């Protein structure tokens, strides 16, 4: 609406001069606002003069002309319309013309035209089925013992953060735009790595120290941790490796339970076994409960595939396997313990096991190449679903953007929205801070 400007300081009656402006309240008898019939303006007469000098004050300019009110009552307006005196309104807009040469065809006999629901930005927004917000993000952060932040070559924009300095700054930035959940991944000194990964449950180790510091500085933050031996193993594998190349399942689970309890004792909110050992969720749940941490959640890496999209992550943590890979339990035979990317039904086997063992959240990793797995689990489980947009996905989008082959921001947001549409409740993504800034409209 156009605003009305009133300035009567130069034409106040003498009887009003000297009055306290806080106590004097003009009435309709003091001042009258009269609409000028020929101009879009307001005239203000002085009530003390027998021949009032009118001052015409222009209305503030609006984006469209606003009709001047007539001062008629509701009953008078209705009576005027009933008598045929219909107020003037803008004309019906003309039908837009098609370009020359457009064929003239009869309308298709369609009772339903889905395009009607998306014919304007307002309609598209009203019927949007999937939404995304910073609350849906979990921000993976790499930490190390140093004081300086070290850039990760394969992951532009990501760093190994000094746990006492750079990490705190990054968490503060994330919280400023609504990202209140993080997951920690440590770069452990080689001197502390052993075949059995004992450093994983050192209560004075890098991760427990970092958790305590974060909880002290940011009490409301939600901290997820990674439960696996590969950052602590001299072999670089998620479990203990026997001399014949077999990953030892039950012995590894024993170590993982101690690691989860150490993290919970430090203040972790969610422990996340990513090792893919059989039975580890139930064993960890029992260990946490026995230690008095019934409130700590377990986010199980339920469907973690042996993917080639993990490469940049292993550079970040310097945790490439010293030999073999992660495709079967026999690492000598080009195999590991992670799932075969060709398998679809096997994911549901893992879902049933993790649900029965007490998992609170089910995670699929990687994210975008496995949207069908996310949807399958979403349709068959009532538990919250997490998706991990892994380092390879992040780096591809970053590289494409840097080479001007794609619009990085738009592709980033579309990829995250796709993960939500497939059924993910939360998304672990290195884009968390950047995407949250976009959602908040912050200009970098």
Automatic annotation (TrEMBL):
The keyword Amino-acid biosynthesis does not apply. Pathway: Porphyrin-containing compound metabolism; protoporphyrin-IX biosynthesis; coproporphyrinogen-III from 5-aminolevulinate: step 1/4. It is found in: Plastid, Chloroplast. It catalyses: 2 5-aminolevulinate = porphobilinogen + 2 H2O + H(+). One of its GO terms (molecular function) is porphobilinogen synthase activity. It comes from Linum tenue. Its cofactor is Mg(2+). The keyword Plastid applies. InterPro entries: ALAD, ALAD_AS, Aldolase_TIM. SMART domains: ALAD (SM01004). CDD domains: ALAD_PBGS_aspartate_rich. Residues 96-120 are annotated as: Disordered. It is an enzyme of class 4 (lyase). Catalyzes an early step in the biosynthesis of tetrapyrroles. Binds two molecules of 5-aminolevulinate per subunit, each at a distinct site, and catalyzes their condensation to form porphobilinogen. One of its GO terms (cellular component) is cytosol. GO terms for biological process: chlorophyll biosynthetic process; heme biosynthetic process. Keywords: Allosteric enzyme, Chlorophyll biosynthesis, Chloroplast, Heme biosynthesis, Lyase, Magnesium, Metal-binding, Plastid, Porphyrin biosynthesis, Transit peptide. Residues 98-111 have a biased composition (Low complexity). This is Delta-aminolevulinic acid dehydratase. Belongs to the ALAD family. Its EC number is 4.2.1.24. Homooctamer.
């Amino acid at each position: 609406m156009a605003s009305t400007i009133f300035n009567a300081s130069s034409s106040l009656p003498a009887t009003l001069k000297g009055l306290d402006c806080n106590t004097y309240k003009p009435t309709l008898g003091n001042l009258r606002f009269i609409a000028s019939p020929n101009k879009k303006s307001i005239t203000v007469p002085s009530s003390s003069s027998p021949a009032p000098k009118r001052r015409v004050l222009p209305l503030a300019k609006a984006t469209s002309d606003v009709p001047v009110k007539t001062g008629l009552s509701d009953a008078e307006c209705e009576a005027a319309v009933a008598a045929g005196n219909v107020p003037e309104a803008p004309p019906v807009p003309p039908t837009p013309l098609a370009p020359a040469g457009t064929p003239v065809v009869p309308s298709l006999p369609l009772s339903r035209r889905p395009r009607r629901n998306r014919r304007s930005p307002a309609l598209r927004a009203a019927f949007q089925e999937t939404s995304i917000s910073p609350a849906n993000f979990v921000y993976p952060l790499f930490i190390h013992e140093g004081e300086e932040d070290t850039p990760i070559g394969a992951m532009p924009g990501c760093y190994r953060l000094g746990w006492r300095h750079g990490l705190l700054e990054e968490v503060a930035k994330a919280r400023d735009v609504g990202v209140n959940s993080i997951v920690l991944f440590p770069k452990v000194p080689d001197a502390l790595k052993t075949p059995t990964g004992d450093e994983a449950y050192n209560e004075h180790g890098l991760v427990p120290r970092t958790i305590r510091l974060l909880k002290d500085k940011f009490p409301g933050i939600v901290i997820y941790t990674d439960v696996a031996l590969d950052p602590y193993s001299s072999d670089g594998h998620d479990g203990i490796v026997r001399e014949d190349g077999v990953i030892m399942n039950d012995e590894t689970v024993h170590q993982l339970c101690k690691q989860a309890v150490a993290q919970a004792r430090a203040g972790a909110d969610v422990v996340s076994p990513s090792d893919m050992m059989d039975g580890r969720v139930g064993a960890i749940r029992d260990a946490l409960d026995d230690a008095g941490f019934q409130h700590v959640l377990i986010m199980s890496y339920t469907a973690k595939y042996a993917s080639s999209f993990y490469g940049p992550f292993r550079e970040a943590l310097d945790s490439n396997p010293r030999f073999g890979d992660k495709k079967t339990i026999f690492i000598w035979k080009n195999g590991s313990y992670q799932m075969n990317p060709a398998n679809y039904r096997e994911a549901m086997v893992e879902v049933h096991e993790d649900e029965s063992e007490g998992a609170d959240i089910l995670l699929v990793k990687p994210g975008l190449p496995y949207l069908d797995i996310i949807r399958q689990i979403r349709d068959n489980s009532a538990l919250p679903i997490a998706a991990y947009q892994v380092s390879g996905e992040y780096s591809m989008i970053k590289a494409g953007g840097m080479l001007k082959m794609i619009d990085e921001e738009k592709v980033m947001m579309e990829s995250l929205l796709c993960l939500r549409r497939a059924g993910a409740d939360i998304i672990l993504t290195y884009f968390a801070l950047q995407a949250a800034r976009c959602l908040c409209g912050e200009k970098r």
